[in-house]
Amino acid sequence: MTKRTDAKPALQLAGALDLSPAPESCPAPIKSRYGHFIGGEFVDGDDHFTTVNPATGEVLAEVAAGSDETVDQAVKAARKAADGVWGKMSGADRGKFLYRIARRIQERSRELAVLETIDNGKPIRETRDVDIPLAAQHFFYYAGWADKLQYAVPGGNPTPLGVAGQVIPWNFPFLMASWKLAPALATGNTVVLKPAETTPLSAMLLAEILQEVDLPPGVINIVNGAGRTGGAVMGHPDIDKVAFTGSTNVGRIIMRQIAGSKKKATMELGGKGAHIVFADASLDQAVEGCINGIFFNQGHVCCAGSRLLVEESIAEEFLERLKRRVEVLRIGNPLDKNTDIGAINSVKQLGTINKYLDIGKNEGANVWQSPCPVPDKGFFLPPTIMSGVQQTDTVVREEIFGPVLSVLTFRTPAEAIKKANDTEYGLAAGVWSEKNSKLFEVAHALNAGIVWANGYNLFDPASPFGGVRHSGFGREGGIAGLWAYMGGIS
Ligand code: NAD
Question: Would you say the pTM of this structure is higher than 0.70?
Answer without folding.
Answer: yes
